[in-house]
## 1
Amino acid sequence: MAIYLNNNVGVKLATAAAPTVPSIDISAFVTNAVINQIVDELEVTAMGDSAHKFVKGLESGTLVVSLLNDTATSNVLQTLNAAFGTTVAVKMVQAKVPAVSATNPLYTFDILVNNLTPINGAVGDIGSQELSFTLNSAVTVATTGTF
Protein backbone atom coordinates (compact mmCIF):
# COMPACT_ATOMS: atom_id res chain seq x y z
CA MET A 1 0.00 0.00 0.00
CA ALA A 2 1.49 3.34 -1.08
CA ILE A 3 0.85 5.88 1.65
CA TYR A 4 2.18 9.40 1.47
CA LEU A 5 2.43 12.48 3.65
CA ASN A 6 0.23 15.11 2.03
CA ASN A 7 2.33 18.16 2.87
CA ASN A 8 4.04 19.00 -0.42
CA VAL A 9 1.15 19.54 -2.87
CA GLY A 10 2.08 21.88 -5.70
CA VAL A 11 -0.43 24.46 -7.00
CA LYS A 12 0.22 26.93 -9.82
CA LEU A 13 -2.28 29.46 -11.11
CA ALA A 14 -2.25 31.46 -14.28
CA THR A 15 -2.57 35.23 -14.12
CA ALA A 16 -5.35 37.28 -15.64
CA ALA A 17 -2.76 38.64 -18.09
CA ALA A 18 -1.83 35.11 -19.26
CA PRO A 19 -4.87 32.95 -18.38
CA THR A 20 -3.69 29.82 -20.21
CA VAL A 21 -0.17 29.58 -18.72
CA PRO A 22 0.04 28.63 -15.02
CA SER A 23 2.91 30.71 -13.74
CA ILE A 24 2.29 31.81 -10.15
CA ASP A 25 3.31 29.11 -7.67
CA ILE A 26 1.03 29.54 -4.64
CA SER A 27 1.98 26.21 -3.03
CA ALA A 28 3.57 27.89 -0.01
CA PHE A 29 0.18 29.46 0.86
CA VAL A 30 -2.01 26.35 0.41
CA THR A 31 -3.09 24.59 3.60
CA ASN A 32 -5.61 22.23 1.99
CA ALA A 33 -6.51 21.28 -1.58
CA VAL A 34 -9.16 18.97 -3.03
CA ILE A 35 -10.03 18.25 -6.68
CA ASN A 36 -13.55 16.87 -7.10
CA GLN A 37 -14.18 15.26 -10.49
CA ILE A 38 -17.75 14.41 -11.50
CA VAL A 39 -19.31 13.07 -14.69
CA ASP A 40 -22.96 13.11 -15.68
CA GLU A 41 -24.61 9.69 -15.90
CA LEU A 42 -26.53 9.17 -19.12
CA GLU A 43 -28.96 6.30 -19.05
CA VAL A 44 -28.77 3.92 -22.02
CA THR A 45 -31.08 1.18 -20.72
CA ALA A 46 -32.77 -0.61 -23.61
CA MET A 47 -35.76 -2.92 -23.85
CA GLY A 48 -34.90 -6.35 -22.54
CA ASP A 49 -32.14 -5.15 -20.16
CA SER A 50 -32.39 -6.59 -16.66
CA ALA A 51 -30.77 -3.57 -14.99
CA HIS A 52 -30.20 0.10 -15.65
CA LYS A 53 -27.15 0.92 -17.81
CA PHE A 54 -25.27 4.20 -17.85
CA VAL A 55 -22.48 5.85 -19.83
CA LYS A 56 -20.27 8.81 -19.10
CA GLY A 57 -21.63 12.23 -19.99
CA LEU A 58 -20.09 15.64 -19.57
CA GLU A 59 -17.43 16.19 -16.90
CA SER A 60 -17.67 18.84 -14.21
CA GLY A 61 -16.01 19.39 -10.89
CA THR A 62 -14.63 21.74 -8.29
CA LEU A 63 -11.34 22.76 -6.77
CA VAL A 64 -11.62 23.42 -3.04
CA VAL A 65 -8.56 25.17 -1.69
CA SER A 66 -7.68 26.75 1.65
CA LEU A 67 -5.17 29.58 1.36
CA LEU A 68 -3.18 31.82 3.66
CA ASN A 69 -3.74 35.38 2.46
CA ASP A 70 -0.66 37.26 1.30
CA THR A 71 -0.85 40.72 -0.22
CA ALA A 72 2.67 40.78 -1.71
CA THR A 73 3.11 41.18 -5.45
CA SER A 74 2.39 37.98 -7.45
CA ASN A 75 1.07 36.12 -4.42
CA VAL A 76 -2.38 34.93 -3.39
CA LEU A 77 -4.50 38.09 -3.10
CA GLN A 78 -3.06 40.02 -6.05
CA THR A 79 -3.28 36.98 -8.33
CA LEU A 80 -6.85 36.10 -7.34
CA ASN A 81 -8.11 39.69 -7.33
CA ALA A 82 -6.75 40.23 -10.84
CA ALA A 83 -8.29 36.95 -12.03
CA PHE A 84 -11.71 37.50 -10.40
CA GLY A 85 -14.51 36.82 -12.88
CA THR A 86 -12.22 35.14 -15.42
CA THR A 87 -11.13 31.62 -16.29
CA VAL A 88 -7.50 30.71 -15.52
CA ALA A 89 -5.44 27.57 -15.91
CA VAL A 90 -4.28 25.51 -12.91
CA LYS A 91 -1.52 22.92 -12.53
CA MET A 92 -1.34 20.61 -9.51
CA VAL A 93 0.89 17.77 -8.38
CA GLN A 94 0.68 15.58 -5.29
CA ALA A 95 4.31 16.37 -4.48
CA LYS A 96 6.48 19.16 -5.90
CA VAL A 97 9.47 16.82 -5.49
CA PRO A 98 10.02 14.25 -7.05
CA ALA A 99 9.30 15.07 -10.68
CA VAL A 100 6.05 14.32 -12.51
CA SER A 101 5.72 10.55 -13.00
CA ALA A 102 3.25 7.68 -12.94
CA THR A 103 3.22 7.87 -9.14
CA ASN A 104 3.17 11.69 -9.05
CA PRO A 105 0.89 12.74 -11.94
CA LEU A 106 0.34 16.28 -13.16
CA TYR A 107 -3.26 17.52 -13.05
CA THR A 108 -4.20 20.43 -15.32
CA PHE A 109 -7.55 22.14 -15.70
CA ASP A 110 -9.22 25.54 -15.89
CA ILE A 111 -11.19 27.21 -13.11
CA LEU A 112 -13.68 30.03 -13.08
CA VAL A 113 -12.52 32.43 -10.35
CA ASN A 114 -16.05 33.15 -9.19
CA ASN A 115 -15.63 33.79 -5.47
CA LEU A 116 -13.09 35.30 -3.07
CA THR A 117 -12.85 35.99 0.65
CA PRO A 118 -10.01 38.53 0.82
CA ILE A 119 -10.80 39.60 4.40
CA ASN A 120 -11.65 36.81 6.81
CA GLY A 121 -10.97 36.39 10.51
CA ALA A 122 -11.12 37.88 13.96
CA VAL A 123 -8.56 39.67 16.12
CA GLY A 124 -5.44 37.52 16.32
CA ASP A 125 -6.42 35.19 13.46
CA ILE A 126 -4.28 34.33 10.48
CA GLY A 127 -5.74 35.87 7.32
CA SER A 128 -7.00 32.96 5.24
CA GLN A 129 -9.75 31.88 2.89
CA GLU A 130 -11.37 28.62 1.87
CA LEU A 131 -12.60 28.77 -1.71
CA SER A 132 -14.51 26.43 -3.98
CA PHE A 133 -13.95 27.07 -7.68
CA THR A 134 -16.00 25.59 -10.49
CA LEU A 135 -13.91 23.66 -13.02
CA ASN A 136 -14.30 25.15 -16.46
CA SER A 137 -12.72 22.22 -18.32
CA ALA A 138 -12.09 18.52 -17.98
CA VAL A 139 -9.18 17.47 -15.74
CA THR A 140 -6.19 16.24 -17.68
CA VAL A 141 -3.89 13.78 -15.90
CA ALA A 142 -0.37 13.33 -17.29
CA THR A 143 2.56 11.20 -16.16
CA THR A 144 5.10 13.39 -17.98
CA GLY A 145 5.60 17.12 -18.16
CA THR A 146 6.77 19.81 -15.80
CA PHE A 147 5.11 21.41 -12.85
## 2
Amino acid sequence: MTVQPLGDRVVVKALSQEEVTKSGIYLPDTAKDEKPEQGEVIAVGPGKLLENGQRAPIAVAVGDSIVFKKYGPDEVKIDGEEFLILSEEDILAKIV
Protein backbone atom coordinates (compact mmCIF):
# COMPACT_ATOMS: atom_id res chain seq x y z
CA MET A 1 0.00 0.00 0.00
CA THR A 2 1.27 3.46 -0.83
CA VAL A 3 0.46 6.59 1.11
CA GLN A 4 0.03 9.99 -0.53
CA PRO A 5 -0.15 12.82 2.02
CA LEU A 6 -2.36 15.81 1.27
CA GLY A 7 -1.47 19.51 1.29
CA ASP A 8 1.79 20.38 3.01
CA ARG A 9 2.00 17.12 4.97
CA VAL A 10 4.93 14.71 4.99
CA VAL A 11 5.06 11.00 5.90
CA VAL A 12 8.16 10.13 7.95
CA LYS A 13 9.71 6.89 9.18
CA ALA A 14 11.18 7.62 12.61
CA LEU A 15 14.85 6.83 13.13
CA SER A 16 15.62 4.77 16.19
CA GLN A 17 17.80 6.70 18.61
CA GLU A 18 19.89 4.62 20.95
CA GLU A 19 21.44 6.47 23.84
CA VAL A 20 24.74 5.65 25.52
CA THR A 21 25.19 6.35 29.23
CA LYS A 22 28.47 7.70 30.64
CA SER A 23 29.43 4.16 31.68
CA GLY A 24 28.95 2.90 28.10
CA ILE A 25 25.58 1.15 28.50
CA TYR A 26 23.34 1.37 25.43
CA LEU A 27 19.73 2.33 26.15
CA PRO A 28 17.35 1.37 23.32
CA ASP A 29 14.71 3.85 22.20
CA THR A 30 12.09 1.80 24.08
CA ALA A 31 13.82 2.49 27.41
CA LYS A 32 12.49 6.03 27.55
CA ASP A 33 9.16 7.62 26.77
CA GLU A 34 10.52 10.34 24.49
CA LYS A 35 9.13 10.58 20.98
CA PRO A 36 11.66 10.51 18.12
CA GLU A 37 12.84 13.80 16.71
CA GLN A 38 14.59 12.55 13.57
CA GLY A 39 13.33 10.58 10.64
CA GLU A 40 13.48 9.80 6.94
CA VAL A 41 10.93 11.30 4.54
CA ILE A 42 8.87 8.52 2.91
CA ALA A 43 6.26 10.59 1.01
CA VAL A 44 5.56 14.28 0.39
CA GLY A 45 2.25 16.02 -0.34
CA PRO A 46 1.73 18.40 -3.27
CA GLY A 47 2.28 21.51 -1.13
CA LYS A 48 0.18 24.11 0.62
CA LEU A 49 -2.56 25.67 -1.50
CA LEU A 50 -2.05 29.43 -1.69
CA GLU A 51 -4.77 32.08 -1.98
CA ASN A 52 -3.97 32.58 -5.68
CA GLY A 53 -4.69 28.88 -6.38
CA GLN A 54 -1.07 27.83 -6.83
CA ARG A 55 0.81 25.39 -4.60
CA ALA A 56 3.85 26.33 -2.53
CA PRO A 57 6.60 23.72 -3.07
CA ILE A 58 7.68 21.67 -0.04
CA ALA A 59 11.32 22.13 1.01
CA VAL A 60 11.99 18.40 1.61
CA ALA A 61 11.98 15.41 -0.74
CA VAL A 62 11.59 11.65 -0.39
CA GLY A 63 14.76 10.19 1.16
CA ASP A 64 15.75 13.33 3.10
CA SER A 65 16.68 12.96 6.77
CA ILE A 66 14.95 15.58 8.88
CA VAL A 67 14.64 16.94 12.41
CA PHE A 68 11.11 17.74 13.54
CA LYS A 69 9.20 19.04 16.55
CA LYS A 70 8.87 16.42 19.25
CA TYR A 71 5.11 16.71 19.72
CA GLY A 72 4.08 17.80 16.20
CA PRO A 73 3.48 14.52 14.32
CA ASP A 74 0.49 12.18 14.30
CA GLU A 75 1.35 8.48 14.62
CA VAL A 76 -0.23 6.03 12.15
CA LYS A 77 0.20 2.33 11.46
CA ILE A 78 0.17 1.25 7.81
CA ASP A 79 0.60 -2.42 6.85
CA GLY A 80 1.88 -3.13 10.38
CA GLU A 81 4.59 -0.46 10.18
CA GLU A 82 4.54 2.76 12.21
CA PHE A 83 4.88 6.11 10.47
CA LEU A 84 4.52 9.76 11.44
CA ILE A 85 2.53 12.34 9.50
CA LEU A 86 3.45 15.94 10.09
CA SER A 87 2.93 19.34 8.57
CA GLU A 88 5.83 21.05 6.83
CA GLU A 89 5.79 23.77 9.51
CA ASP A 90 6.73 21.11 12.13
CA ILE A 91 9.96 20.30 10.25
CA LEU A 92 12.87 22.14 11.83
CA ALA A 93 15.79 21.16 9.57
CA LYS A 94 17.23 18.79 6.97
CA ILE A 95 20.23 16.69 7.96
CA VAL A 96 22.88 16.92 5.23
